[in-house]
Design brief:
- By secondary structure, this protein is of the alpha/beta class.
- The chain is built from six helices and five strands; from the N terminus they run H-H-H-E-H-E-H-H-E-E-E.
- It has a five-stranded mixed beta sheet with strand order 2-1-3-4-5, sandwiched between helices.
- Helix 2 packs parallel to helix 4 and helix 5 crosses helix 6.
Amino acid sequence: MKLISLQVALFGAALALAGCSKEYVRGSNDPSIDNPAMSTGLDKEDIQRMLSESLGKLRNAPLMELWRGNRGKDIVAIFPYQNATSEHIDSQLGAALSETETWLVESGVVTVISRERQKEMIAEVEGHQNPVFNPANVTKYGRQLGAKYFITGKVQAAAERTDDARRVQYFLFMQVIEVETSAIRFQHKAYITKMVR
């Protein structure tokens, strides 16, 4: 009798564990896994939406027409998007930076400076002891790199909380700045809102 009870208990435990097991899913097999928001941070869909809007505006801007007319002779550097939020989104901003760089390279209208080369130039400007990107020195970096323009930006956020919900509104500001004059030649803002309740 004890043996049967033990077997039934073990069988029940095995069934319970089987019901709790995790299933790993590849996005190419189930594209819907990217749809739900998993946090109030930025995800792939948020980044793509913000960049699609901002880069779409750049595509149709007078500056892009100028670049097209110069047939790839304009040199552009891409500097980090500044995280001006209290959210932990630095890796997502790195992905946004890579997507921006890829979009520009694929457009074929400008020459894009390698971000690895930019790190070397930042080290030369800031000193090898502290080669950290400083937004105040982007004009110096651009000159050092031989760039005529640079793309940069920042993300700001407004976060609010109630007893049962938290909402974060993100604002991406993208700029193209002329190195020689520091004139803003293009600027666009895009918004994303995330909420957990």
